[in-house]
Amino acid sequence: MTEANRNTIEQKYAMLLAAICLLVGIVGGWFLHIPQSPTVPADKVAVASTQAASQAPSPARLKAMADAQAAPQLEQLKADPNNTALLTGIGNLYYDAQQYQSAIDYYQRTLKVKPADAAVRTDMATAYWYLGNADTALSEFDKALTYQPNNPNTLFNRGMVRWQGKMDSAGALADWQKLLATDPSYDAKDKVLQMMAEVKQHASVKPATPAR
Length: 212
Fold this sequence. Notes:
Blueprint: H1 3-24, E1 32-33, E2 44-45, H2 50-55, H3 59-79, H4 84-96, H5 100-113, H6 118-130, H7 134-147, H8 152-166, H9 169-182, H10 189-204
Helix pairs in contact: 1-3, 3-4, 4-5, 5-6, 6-7, 6-8, 7-8, 8-9, 9-10
């Protein structure tokens, strides 16, 4: 791929992300997704919002946008089917358009070539979570951590799935404590501390004793 073509792809990818953000607004969860394109800002943190959900475009509209944007990269992929930059970029387009199964398909192809890519595996695990598959998400987070045991975003997101998907407060706290211990300057540190406090507060609440 020439440098000019690469720059064009990255510019178009960034433009699509901007368009999706304007249309979708704020989507559910506090999970972190780190796009692999070097020109796209990292650490997009999402917050649930009823108002944003009511203003969001339909899944069909988002898929059409992602399909159109991915078309040039898919064409290039025909000549270079194991190009991990292309595969990951396409996966990211579909992830950000909330087409999680399509994103997973391309992330899986990336991981066949680069199984130790913890960032891609973490994004794939988070996509599984959004599809309602907490067990597979946790399995993929675990695999990512075998390659990068202290990957902060993997620890962040595994803690979220342990907490929200498995009601495993102790496991979530362990992940976040390790995150802060190994990366004390983590960008989302304030949010991690907030969630830890919330988990501890919930764990300390005792069920009411039935009146006799």
